[in-house]
Specification:
It contains 19 helices and 24 strands. The protein is of the alpha+beta class.
Amino acid sequence: MHEYRSHNCSELGSENVGDIARLSGWVHRKRDHGGLLFIDLRDHYGVTQCVFDSDFKEIFEVAENVRAETVIRVEGEVIKRDAEAINRELPTGSVEILVKKVDVLNAAEELPLPVFGDQEYPEDIRLKYRFLDLRRERIHNNIVLRSDIISSIRRRMVGQGFKEFQTPILTASSPEGARDFLVPSRMHPGKFYALPQAPQQFKQLLMIAGFDRYFQIAPCFRDEDARADRSPGEFYQLDMEMSFVTQEDVFAAIEPVMQGIFEEFSDRKVTSAPFPRISYKDSMLKYGNDKPDLRNPIEICDVTEVFDGSGFGIFAGAIKNDAVVRAIPAPGAGGGQPRSFFDKMNDWARAEGFAGLGYIRFKDGEAMGPIAKNLDENRIAKLNEIANFSDQDGVFFACGKAEEAAKLAGLARTKVGEDLDLIGDDEFKFCWIVDFPMYEYDEVEKKLDFSHNPFSMPQGGLDALNTMKPEDILGYQYDIVCNGIELSSGAIRNHVPEIMYKAFEIAGYGPEVVEERFAGMLNALKYGAPPHGGIAPGVDRIVMLLADEPNIREVIVFPMNQKAEDLMMNAPSEVEMKQLRELHLRTIVPDDKN
């Protein structure tokens, strides 16, 4: 028999009754029934109930004195549980071990947080003692799920002919995107490596090198603030790139992977490929953002013409100053909700920093509310024609400049959907957002700049750059979205140097800037680069959705806190002066008073 175990804690069943078994694991919980003491023994695989009889005094005393989470080894006879004691929720629930021998392999001190049970503990305690937190069933299962999902992703990508390559971790700093994590070079004083924000340039270089289909479960490093769906410091993505492809080819490659993963690891309904394609323009109009939650049936519509020149002076006056009016339907709320529902929505909008949220209630053939009183019958009819309201519906209105109105309408759409319980939790709805504008006007810098990805291929190529207004040029850029969460951005890349020069010229960057900042990529494009494109869905966000967790830290083995600190390993930390001298560095600590 093996020194530590003949079986794991999930293997024993009624077929083993009468066998002598040896198990090792953690004391999950204890129950003292007088002359009998029960210990649930836990390992990675599951739980087995162990029985200690007071007739065996020596081992009974050991069991009495062990703390929870002590590591023990037990040996004894597998016996059948009484019918009323069977635990049908456990694979081992029909049997137990009558312990004849016990050894304490490692005694546990008093726990800073319990492993048994579902008690909520402060995040700082959970992260400081993450090794204990990871023993808890929910978080333990999340990490196992993550491993299984990554394994499945690899199988699916390889099955489509993709090859996995590893790209460098120590690379050059990039002037674009988020802040880099810098690594000082000992051998090159005053110079720094950077941890990659993504393998973007390397994967494009792999296509230029002729490898055709690449993927990697890639670590990425960005010095940015934490959010519920974004971990500070580092994250992982399914990085992939393909040669000689159109945008639709990329979609056709990634859709079966996403659909397959979500169907494999969830019992919810999943959008079937091909996923819906929604233009950026339509998404901003209908959903108020570029990552719509399609589980919400509400669609926003533009009703500016209804209020233009109307008797409702607030909106009519704003429209003269280039404002728009967006309508957000509230299905069934006109007849099914009291007036307070509508007034509370207006209060909510003000609390969010907006001027307010107008409304109309349709009930018993009548349009009701302050706005309705200032619209004639023809305008009410036009409103119904555009938005197709029923008699018992309500409708809210967001008025402002196009961007502000879209933002308020999008937030209101989500809140109305939640308040009216319209958003189901029994499906995963995917879509693609396509046709992003290449350029936008930066109000802060007062200049035209790239709106999404400067290295994307413009739709229409060089001809579009030479002949079209910059604000009308669209890019072959796309986002994949699931239930209102952006899983990834991607693009068909610009593989022609002349197009790259012209694209940057329109944004105000001369050829010397392009050659200085992007010399490596530009040089490679001059030696026969194929048309290529790709995408990089976030692994952490995929697991978060499938584990039904609201916070991404619940699906990462050793996450940092929101201040980008590792409380368990005490990182970041100060280093010895000797190390700084070797790196030719001197630290300047800011004055806390400033």
